[in-house]
Structure formats: C-alpha cells, structure tokens
Request: fold
Amino acid sequence: MSESPQTLTIQQDSYAHLRGREAMDTPSRFRNRVSKYRVFRSSACTACNKCAELCPYGVHVRSGDRMLRPREAFCIGLACRSNDFYCISQCPEKALSMALNPLFETMGDARWSADMILATWVMAETGDVPSGGLEYEFGRSGGGFDKLAFDFPKKPAISLDEEEIDLSVELNRSGDEAERISIDIPVYGGGMSFGSVSEHTILGRCIAARNWNTFTCTGEGGYIESIVPFAKHVITQVATGLFGVREETIQRARIIEFKYAQGAKPGLGGHLLGDKVTPQVARMREAVAGSSLFSPFPFHSVYSVEDHKKHVDWIKAITPRSLISVKVSTPTDVDMVAVGSYYAGAHIVHIDGSYGGTGAAPDIAKKNIAMPIEYAIPKVHKFLREEGVRDRIVLVASGGLRNPWDIAKAIALGADAVVIGTAEMVALECIRCANCESGRGCARGIATTDPELTELIQVDYAARRLSNLYLAWSKELKRILKRLGMRSIRELVGRTDCLMRLRS
Amino acid sequence: MMDKKAEKILNSRARLLDGLSRTESRKDAEEGGCGVVGFACNIPVRGKHIYEPSCQMHNRGNGKGGGIAAVGFVPEQLDVSREVLDSHYMLQIGLLDPTARTAVEKEYVLPHFAIASAGMVPTVGDYREVEGLDVRPPDVLRYFVRVKPDALDQFIRENKLEALERDDAEDEFVHQNSFKLNRAYYASLGDKKAFVLSHGKNMMILKIVGFAEKVAQYYLLDEFKAHCWIAHQRYPTKGRVWHPGGAHPFIGMNEALVHNGDFANYLSVSEYLKMRNVYPLFLTDTEVSVLLFDLWKRVYGYPLEYVIEAMAPTTELDFDRLPPEKQRVYRHIQSSHIHGSPDGPWFFIIARNNTTQKQFQLIGITDTAMLRPQVFALSKGEVEIGLCCSEKQAIDATLHSLAEEDPRFHPIADKYWNARGGSHTDGGAFIFTLSGDGDVKKLTCTDKFGFEVTLPSNKKHRNRGVEVATPQGSHELAAEIDELVKAGDADALFGWLSGGLRVWQYDTLGCALNKTVRAAGANDEKRTTVIKALTLLNDRRYPTGDKKRSSVLELVRSALRSVFEGCLPITADGISRFRFIDWHTRHQLRAPRDGEQTLVLNAAGFSAEGPLCHSRLFVDAYRLGWKRFIAYGLKGERFSGCGFGSGTEGVVIDLYDSVGDYVASGIDGMEIYIHGNGQDQLAQIIKAGKLVVYGDVGQTFMYGAKGGAVYVMGNAAGRPLINAVGKPRVIINGTCLDFLAESFMAGDALNGGGFVVLNGMEIDDDGNVHEMPLPYPGSNLFSLASGGAIYVRDPRRCVIDEQLNGGELVSMTEKDWRLILPMLEENERLFGVSVKEHLLKVNGRPMRPEDVYRKVRPVKLAVLAKKDDTE
Reply:
C-alpha cells in the first residue's frame, strides 16, 4: 500500500454524500459553457421577470432586482417559436433576441454531433434528457445506429408503469463456481487506465458505478489504491502489457477483463506516449518515466485459443470466484472468437466495434479495421444461439455507443449489455478535440495525469455528472421499454423485429 | 526454378480444376494451436503408446477433432507380405456415409487399381463403447494397390509425363485420384460422404471427431505396431457439427503432417498454391502446409533442407551468419517462395515414408518467429527413440508409457532441447531418420543442415529388465550411509553418493539409494537430510562414469518417490514434520498441528487446471497455515504457486517431475524450486520472491514480471522477460532462443531496477561447464527497451550492435560487478557454476570481470521519447 503514488488520501466515507441515484444538479464547471443557442438580453430589459415566469426550461432567472445572464444551454431555440411562452415575442420591452451559436457549429463530428455532445452535457447536469432543441437520438453519420430506429407499436401490448420496468442484467450465466453478479443497469464503464485519464476521473467513475450498482474498469495501468474502497464495483484488466497486474489486484476484482484488442485499433496494442508517463504513472506501472509504454498487440503467451483457455484457467486459479470477461475487437470471424471464448470458460464476451476510441487511437485505425458493432452484435448473437450456448454466456458490446437509444438498439440487435467510454468523457465536458494523447493530455483535465490539469476536475463533480448520466439513460431506457411493452431489458435482447432501417 | 518435370506435373493438374472456384480462398476452420506429439522408434511400437501423451494434451484440444498417423508397419499385422507393404499404396478411404462405398469403389478404385488386399479397418463393435465418442467415426476402407499398368500408361500419355520416372508418375496418379475423390465426395457436397484419409506407402492416417486417443481405441490400434506415430488434439472453434475430414493429420503423398498454430497468411499461401494448380479442398492451415511440403519436396524435388528453408526462411542476423554459398541458395529460395511461406505461429510435425531412400522420418519444424512451444528429445540405448512435442510433458508421458511395458525404454530421455526457428545454428528443424532393413532400424537425428545430434558414446543405460541386485559389500555401504545420514549433513551425503557414483555399477548405486531411502525412514531429521541429498543428486550435474545420466536420474527419482511416499499420511495418527496427501485423502486436508511443517503431495489424479487442480489444494492448505510444500509425480499440472496472493514470504514449494505451465506466475514473496525443466509461461508477473529452475524454461518466461530473483540453470526459449518492469533480477546460465528482454522497462539496474545476467554457459552430463559458441545467437536483444540492463558473459565479443534495437553495449564498471556478484555467488551455490573457476576463466586463464562481462543498457530511443507520427 505504501507504494501507491496517489496524493489523495481517501476514505470511502468522504464520498458518502454522493451516494444515491436521485438527480444531483451539477452545472458546467466553466463560466461560459457552450450552448446551441445564444440568448441576448439588451439594456432595454427592466427585470419585469415575465420571461422567467413564462419559460418552463428555466432559461431566465431573476436575482434581486436584475435578471441573470440567460442560461442558454436550456433554451430549446427556434423550436420554441410556436409556443405561447416564447419569450422573445412575449417580452414587453423587446429586450430579448436569440440566434444559433456560431461556436456550436464548429463542434462535433458526424457521429458525435454537436447536438449529441450538448445533450450529453444536459443529461450529466440534470439527470434527464434535454427537454427539446437538441437531437440526441441520432447523429449525422448516415450509417450505423444513425440508420436504425425503433419501430414502436402504436399501442404497447401491455401498459406498464416505468417503476415496474427492470433494467438489471445477470452477468454470470455459466452456473460454475464463480459468483453470481447482477448489475442494475445494462451498462458498465470501459477500461481507462491511470495514465490515460486522471485519478479524479477514475474516482468519479467508481462512485457513479457504486451508485448504480454496476462496474467501471481500471484499464491497464495498475489498480490505484484510492479506488480500493470501491473494489466491489471495479473490473480490473489483464491486458497485453500486464502493467500493474498482480495477484493482489486480480484477487480484489469480482470481474477480470482480458483485453485482447480494442475495436478502435485492433492489432495495434496500447501506446501511452512518453509525455503522459509522469513519475506517478511510471511508478504505478513500475516503468521508466518519460518513456512511451507499449502494450504488445498480442499476448505473447497466447497465440491460440487453447493458450487462451490456459490463460483463463490461470486467472481462475488465482481467483476462482471472479467472473471472466474477454474483450476482443470485431474481426470478420468475431463469431468464432466468441464461441472459442465461451469454450475457454469466459462468462462475458465483450466485443468492441470500430467506432470507439479516443484521440489516442491512430486515425488510420479508427473505423477502418474492425467491423462496425451493429454488424458484429447480431453475427455473434446468432452464432452463439446456433451453437446452443447463447444462454450460458453474456454478450456485451461497445465501440461508439453514445446514448440510451444506441444502447437499446445494441440490445435489440442481440447484446445483453453495453460498455461505454467516450460518453462518460463527454459527460465530464469533453469536447472531443481528440488530443487525448498529446503532451500532458487533456486541456479539460479529463484525460490527463498532469497534477495541475487534474485539478480542473473535482471528484464530486465527476461523480455527480456520471451518476446523472446513468440516471438520464435509465429513465430514457425505461421509456423505450414502456413503449415497446416490455417489462425487462432482457426481453429486448435480440429483438431485431423491433428495429427498422431508416431510408436516407 | 521450376524444371520441366515439375512443370509437366503441375500442368497435368489443370484439368482437375474445372468448375472449381478459382478466386475464393477462404479458410473454413479457424484453428488454434493444438497439442501435437510425435515419435520415431527404431523398433515398431504399439499404438497404445500414443494414448498417454494424447490424454496429456486434452487441455490443448476440445475433443472435437483428433487424429493420428503412423508410418512403418509389421506386414503380418496387416495380413500382407513385406513386398506388398513396401511396394503398394495403402489407400484408406473414410466413409462418412457407409452407403457411398459402392459408388466410390466403382469410380475411384476398381477402374484404376490392381488390388493386392482390401478390407475394412477393424473397429470396436459399437462406437458408444468407447467412452467419450459422441460421433460415429468414419468406416475406413483400406486397400493395398498399385496403379494398373494400362491406366498408368494412359495417364502418362495424356499428360505428357514421359520424362518422369514411372514411379513418380504413379505417385502423381494416386495423388490426383485422391484429389478427384475428395472433390466429388467431400468438398463439393453439402452433405459430405467420403474422403481419402491417406494413400502413402507403408503409412496411414486415421481421424475422428473426438480426442486423438479415441482413434487408437476405436480402430483397435492398441496392439498395432509402427515405427513412427504422430497425434494431434485439435481445438477448432467453429460449428457444432464436425467432420473428421477437417482434423489433422493431413496427407501429402507419403507424409502426414500435424500442425500447432494458425497462419496469418492463409490466403496468400492459398493463392501461391493456386498459381501452381494446387487447390486446397479441406480449407485448413494444415492442409495447405502439407500441400506446400508435397509441392516442394516431391514435385520440385528439393532437398529437405531447402523445403525447410522455404517454410521457415532464415532472416536477419542469422542470415548474415550463414556461409556465403548457403546465402546464395537461400536468397533464391526466399525470393521464389516467400509468398508461399507460412507466416507463424506454427509448429509442424511430419511423419514420412521416404520411399526413395527407404527411410522413415519424423520431422519437427518451428517457424522463424518461434511463436509456438516445441521440445525435442532423444534417447539411445538398446532401443532408440526420438520425440518432438508441443510440451515436454507429452514427451515424458510417451516415454513413461513405453518404459512401463518394455524395459528397453527409459522414462527419462538422454537429451531434451528446443529448436531455434529460421536460425543459422540449427535451422529450427530436426529430423529423426530410421534407416536399414528389417524390424530393427538405425535412428539418427540431424538438424536442418544435416549436423547430427549426438549423445556421449561411452555411457550405457541401466538394464531395466532386472531388479537392482545386492552387490557385495552392501553392509558396509549401508553402514556408511547410516553414518552420513545420522550426521545430518546433506551436502556431505550428496558428495559421498555422487563421488561413489562415478565408479559404481548400477547395482551398487541402486543399493546405495535403497539404503539411503531406508535410512530416511528413521526420523524427521534423517528424512530431511535424505530429501536434501537426493534432491541434489537429482538437480546437479556430476560425473556419472560409464552410466547414463538418464538412468541415474531414474533411480534417484524413484528413491525420492519412495522417501515421499514414506511420509506420514495426513489421515494417520502420529507426529511428524511431514504429512503426505494425495488425491484420495485431499478432503482430509486440515491445518498443520504439532510441529507439522511440510505437506507432501502426490500429484497423481489431480487435474491439470480448474477446481480439481493441485494448485487449489495448495492455496487451501496455505490458508490453513501450511507454508512448506513438496509436490511430486507431476505430469504437466499447471499453476503451482498461483493464487496465494501477496506477502507470501516464508512459503517454499518444491516441485518434482514434469511441472506444467504458469508455475510461479504472480508469486509475491514465496520461493519455488523446480527440480528439472520448467515449461511455458513461468513466473509471469512475478512480483517478489525466488524461483530456481534446475533445467530449461519455456516460452514467454517472466512476461510482465515486476520483481523477484530468478535462477535458471539452463536455457530459456523465446521471449523471456518481455514487457518486464520494476526490479526482476535473473540469471540465465545458458542462453535464449531469441527476443530476450523486449520492451524491458525495469528502471535503472544500478538504482534498484531489474537486470538479466546471461552467462552463455552449458553444463554437460558430467558436470563440466563449457562456454557456448555464442552467448546469444538470436537476432533481437533488448528491443524497444527503456529500462533495466543485461549483463552478458561475452569474453570473445560475439554480441554485436546489430542485435540491439534500443540498447547499447558498454563496459562493465566496478559498480555493475558489485551488483551482480551476490547473485552469481548464489548461482554458484545453487548450480555449481563457479564464479572464479568457470565464469571468470577463459580458456583456463583467469580474467577480470570487465573483460568477461559486457553490459547492455537502454538508450533513449526517439520512438519512445517522442510522440510518433501516426497522429
């Protein structure tokens, strides 16, 4: 324990106030946050408070005898024009005006559109989806989940209250000697190492995972001591560099994830550039500060499926009660890989499609090597079913799942649950500038290990934002299930008949 | 390169291909590495002996495809004459649909072949009688045939093959006929009906859906004798419905090939073959491998050396170190065939009837990157046997099985070694050749270049057919031993026994060991002394006079076993420091009491892995308070020492016999002693503690290690210490195959970081310590390393800059020497490799440390320090 590089000394109790699942209003940590619309108030304003009384979204707030600057992020914009509470036209002094924010137009990309980024921010702030004005169901990629939509029945077969809808997923279906583990939402956090992201980010993820009785993952950078109190909700990774992997850390984890590949960069291995290898990171991994750290592209001890079985058996020998998850990317024969993993004794097969990955994955690899996840999921799901083992293994998907709708679609395609990464970063106000790997890392203090940049995010903020995100997603997932007339998320698995393809 | 004959043969195949898809090269079955085993023996041995090693490899297969091949039979067992056996093709057709027989015979057998003998291969009555067989194995038709002269004439005429020897044309006819049959009754059908299992002379292949040893059971091969056997456990991952056609081995012409691995370039190899009118029908790596072999060996007529070069090209520094003449030839081979060269990982075992030279051969070839484990072994005495396997445990299992029934065989081989793939030293391949007439052949083992692997000629095995007789003077012997045991000095006892052993006959040695065992029984102190002394006899090398070390070891290990078995059972009353536990008493495990210290475990019966593995029992025992463990009788059981968690200082584990993979992986404080060779994946992620290996270690030794002190008496295979960080400290007294300390990140050796001492020394069977020709023959040393150091004993300055990519060679300093000396001294104590007499002497002359050792340390590489340019 003495070797922990952490500067924080943390008791679990110091985060007791962050327990619970109710919405914890957590506004942006930046004074001028980016919104889709700009709302201007001219000097003609008399602070009559009419706009505040009208607006149901809380854009206008009076403080004392003057109006505060409009909270533009909540404005639903031009869509409001037809409402009788449209403040611009109702203002007696004609002091209000509104326009699309030019900064907004520079943000995002086709998959993670500016709308979706901002909507994720709203969810992280409020614990629910935006009231309007932001398109968060679809991106503009013209493919993948952006071309899939639910074909809802006009009226669901059964009418359900959202409270009776169950989102929990059982993660051990093998019936072997390992623990039975169930998570309350069909989502858990993907591997992010200490080194790729800051300690505060990691702690925030842990607290959110605890609140929602799900998991987050250490990635391959060692198991930092400050998250030990959250061990019940922490997956640890055994990846190809074996950084920070020790019997002690393996035995601590209820789920062990073998990372064979990442969908964003299959066949390339991990790569932490020298600049991000600060003395703390180097100490955690017992490597040399300032020198890039490579995780080899394969496990050098695993060149075949029976080597893989031996590898799994090894981890089971160390920790017989833990579940084994096998994370692979999505090559064309991903179905065979999944079946091989099952026979080798995995409880979870985790397929990681090509859309995922942050700035650290080379552009040439992202989206160009692995199979898109929406193809891989049904392929594996069907193959496992034909093989007669589908109900003995949990299929988890990741790789560019951005929002509750993507999650529902992935599950309808055949996954049991999903793993997310980028969306959590966005919830912490990542703007997707894709410079995660450079210098000391992220200018927004998320994907960094620089001591000063780390202070840009406080643990409370990260925990609340992520917990809110899960809350918003849960609400939305329940709404979707309600419309489909399904009592449990498990009923949705493999229901491709609920989906339809959008025409361009 | 292609001469006219080869061209004619390949052209003649064009018309076989009508209607075949010429573009698609898909791989049907994704194959993993598998378990492979092969042996060649100068006398024919029963199929029963492929059974044990096959069972050993269960965890390298999933029971969904197994097969065996055999070469060199006893004519009487096949009901044919010697002449027919030697001259006729042994055509075996597997019928998946028994009703297909008539049509198959009518089309592909009767019109073309003169049949000397025909029948069904006998089987057990009902396949369900063989436990574990879920799918009915194919009925196998077996014919001894020659091509009818007129059919052959017509074939030669139509294909303009007049330039060929008639025998060669006949081979090609048989080959093409099988292709046609397979195409019609296997490849083109959704519902597969029949396929040719094998068609070579004096050789056969049988394969099934199930574990390989079930082949032997189902086809009644227990009593069936052959000179060469190979077996394969397959671990394919596709589909629930399996066809034995896809299982290994695959047939070439007169050779059967099994394969452990998975090509990265299946498509490229298939394309290469198709350009030569060679079309795979079973769509597996293994099939294309044997097609390559057949193309290069039979069609192109290359010598075996060139075939091996085409398969596993010599590259990098190894290429530079070849003689110029070889470089010239190899360069041609590589430029012509590199596209057909299978890109690893793979390891092939080929059993072959070399009809032109009247030899049977067993060939093991490893790929240039050495990505699969492989071990070779040789034993020569009254009978001679050569073996190659994916793991040493399979070799040991084979030898045990043979030795149990025939005293001419010995349970321990005279020599075990690894091949270095694509190297200039051995070429990564070894060939066991059986030659001579009659049932007793002569066995020679050569490497790719034809250099023979030899054994000391002045040493003899013990005659295992007779019991140890009591020699004269046994009372004096007993008295002396009692005295030594009583004195409690194990080193003295070892010294006395090993000194006497030099001149003793086997009987005297056997008797001395028996007396020693008896003396151990008296009390715990004596037992401790005897275990220590016998363990030293087992571990250390010392002159054995005219006795073979393998036979000495057999007696020593059997003595050790007797001492262990004499320990007080866990269930018995009484007081002893030692408690014995085995499979039957495992549930009686309890906390140690009354001064009990050591748990002695007989590993027989425990599983290789999983809940019933001995490693779990050790963990349970540790939690109950046990700290000292001895396990013996291991047959490849894995994970010894795993699962104890952190802070295990004070725990000591001694392992005897065939230890399995992953031993000491993850240990954090404890000490483990392996009294023999280790296998693969030893000491992965080791955090702290000590590991001592009295032998060699296998692949990816200390991968991702963080710390610990490790001593290896012999060699390491490929990729030792890859991705190691922290402060691991290792002495390897021999050398490594290649890729030592790739991405080594172990800090600064002089400031608490890690290092490797590579001595490049060899200890022979008589305990003499020699310098190896090259301390590090591989082309890659310390690649992409950013921390740690390697201290290599290299007085002749053989290590050169070209081997390094991330390191630089610098002189040793006083500080360096002070760092490694304590470890070298411990190394001396453990293995008898003396710092003064062996390490610091060159050609008998004492040298200074800085003249003997050289240091490799990291240089700051641009690729490591900067962000790379892919962003």
